[in-house]
Amino acid sequence: MDAEPVNYVTAQIAMAPYYLEGVAAVGTVFAGAIYRLWQRVDHDHKITKVELQKCLDEHSLTKQEMSDIREELGFVRGRQDGIEDMSRNVLDTIARGTCAKSRITNPNND
Questions:
Q1: CA distance from start to end of the chain
Q2: pTM higher than 0.70, yes or no?
Q3: DSSP structural state of residue 1
């Protein structure tokens, strides 16, 4: 039972193709993983882009609605101011007329 001496250099040369296959397999797995991650990032980017466009469109509509509401509010405020001025004028006229009438009827009431 004499064992042949193992020549480590010969054993390493004999195993070299298997090491290369292992490294190639690991590289392939990493490349596939990177590719799948890139696809996911690209897919998420497309979805984010669509959602961003929706948000921008809604923002645009909201700005337009706010502009319309501001315009309407200005109109209503102006109308309210006009009504208040008219009411004051009517009350002043009535008050002047009442005072003038009371002076005519009761000249001694000063």
A1: 149
A2: no
A3: -
d(CA 106, CA 102): 6
What is the DSSP track for 18-82? HHHHHHHHHHHHHHHHHHHHHHHHHHHHHHHHHHHHHHHHHHHHHHHHHHHHHHHHHHHHHHHHH
Q: What are the φ/ψ torsions at residue 7 (nearest 5 degrees)?
A: -95, 105
DSSP-derived 3-state class of residue 91: helix
Using the predicted structure, report yes or no on whether residue 25 has a pLDDT greater than 80: yes
List, for residues 41-97, the tens digit of each pLDDT value.
999 999 999 999 999 999 999 999 999 999 999 999 999 999 999 999 999 888 887
Residue 94: its pLDDT value, please? Answer: 87
| Virtual torsion, Cα 58, 61, 63, 66, nearest 10 deg | -120
Other CB atoms within 10 Å distance of the CB of residue 67: 10
